[in-house]
């Protein structure tokens, strides 16, 4: 049995590189950019009025001059015009191009209009109320870096630079495989000795949150069925994710089937709780990576986060920050295992604290409804005092 | 001009109540539960072995007895069997039903099997390695509360209680309306005086993150076109969201059109930056709520978060926690406005700090690529010292 740190390191040594694909930019939300995005022009692309009012030439005429004859009006979307007489002004709308010969905008709130002239009622500063061309970014500059996860902010930027097709990382093809004759489908009424299949549904939803639409296959506890099924799936997926069938039971054929199919076992069993009987391997022929999680629902859920999600983010080259959290109570780890403890979080004065929740072991799926995440308690430290910090894995 | 607090309060006075609809549970990720979810049976539904090993009767025979004849083997998914002779044992697999007359499970790691008998090599405790029926939750108990946002954890729970159809809150029907003749479509090459329409795309993506698929209509700066368009949209949507057309410009027909259409103006202009010329109203006839944001991209983006998102979450009755963040530097607010300042966040020793980013005003869309959120600085406080806290609105 290896330590959690060793197991995590071994998983991270098996990263995949994903190819790239072009998607329409409105379909790129949540995807990972595979190219730098450049400004196709200066931003703003012209000296742009930031207020509705009048455009004037600050230096023209006397400094004390406060009255400007109105030459006309410029709406946003109008090509650039010229202030013919620098002693005059042009009415200008927010977003419009500053006219030639003008250098300053005075907003309506600061003027009075009488008999075709604008009278300025307040102090003005040369150059005010103008968003100058190229001051946000210049043409050709990188506006979004490669390997950024695309949020609504990036969608707006992609739109403004006209990036209709955007190159993103492909996502891995993943098959979820359930085993175990005790499982029945969700729409069925289980017999007293049966339970419904929930792990596959949780995993499917977890992957959906990463924009991955996994397929799902159930294999019965029959060695031939398992072996044939796995053989096919290894050749058509980048990742197999299993739940159950990897403990020491007489009917757990999976490790044996993998061995016969040429899947190299990297490790089996990790000094952690929950999630100890985790089996990890790689198919040498196809490079398909196999995450075979234990059958208990909290074990599968925790291992998805601490192994698979890290592996996925590192494989996609996304920054995957490790955060600590402040403990709201004392926590204990009297074991020789890394403990992943379910916690609720609460914020106070800008600091977020972790508190234990009532739970009933790794089979207690219902406890996840009250769980905001896991804290990781090291086997080398028995007492974590209140106000100390511990690594935190958010799950909500 | 009203304060941000007043404006926010007025928006929250116009909450809507959304109807309910049934969706297939695998389509409910991210939706808001409109019913309590109950356990359809005890969890676990039977005394369940949590280890592979042997099931024994702890009390039978001598206390010193350490050897048990193996009566047979029980796989997970097998109906409940009986330990015929309480001095014997049954091999049992994880997930299987504890047999009648047995009360304790000893795992394989702690036994040796020889000549059809299991010899126990370690201390055992009565009742060990059994996840007892009903100890997670009892039949009929609430396992997920109404008004919960459904995550992958809830999907697993819905699966395990057989809740195939789940009642969720309907989401509002929203039309996004852009105006402004300076805007061209994303796939077009703008002339020097034009810009691409980005606000609608950001808003569309923001709503997509809430599972809302908004429609988008562009209205030209023509009063009749705007009035007819708005009239139709008011009657077919719960919310209209606009960007631009509400400042003091000569071509900003929108407030006038709304007035003529019977949309009551609740307020226009708020003492805040960015986002000052925000216009908020309600159509008395249809109860359609109108969020008319200023045209600058950062103004629209900030106002979406500080007004609309709060309004949406409160309307859906989701807990919408307000968090503070610790400031990583001194911040200043020399104005009489509430400032929403773009920040980057960094965590250290379990505490997250906000730092200012370089930005160029409310027109600087590109700055949002570096923004993790906004901090809100009150007009009543000029200096926020490093290590003080301020309200934080995360945008990433």
UniProtKB/TrEMBL annotation, chains A, B:
Pathway in which the depicted protein is active: Cofactor biosynthesis; molybdopterin biosynthesis
Q: Name one GO molecular function term.
A: metal ion binding
SMART domains in the record: MoCF_biosynth
Looking at the record, the residues that make up the MoaB/Mog domain are: 175-314
Instruction: Name the domain of life.
Output: Bacteria
Q: Which GO terms describe its biological process?
A: Mo-molybdopterin cofactor biosynthetic process
InterPro entries documented for this protein: MoaB/Mog-like_dom_sf, MoaB/Mog_dom, MoeA-like, MoeA_C_domain_IV, MoeA_C_domain_IV_sf, MoeA_linker/N, MoeA_linker/N_sf
Q: Which Pfam families does UniProt cross-reference here?
A: MoCF_biosynth, MoeA_C, MoeA_N
Q: What's its EC?
A: 2.10.1.1
Residues passing through the membrane, by range: none
What are the required cofactors? Mg(2+)
The UniProt record lists the keyword Metal-binding? yes
Q: Which family does it belong to?
A: Belongs to the MoeA family.
Q: What does this protein do?
A: Catalyzes the insertion of molybdate into adenylated molybdopterin with the concomitant release of AMP.
Instruction: Give the protein's recorded name.
Output: Molybdopterin molybdenumtransferase
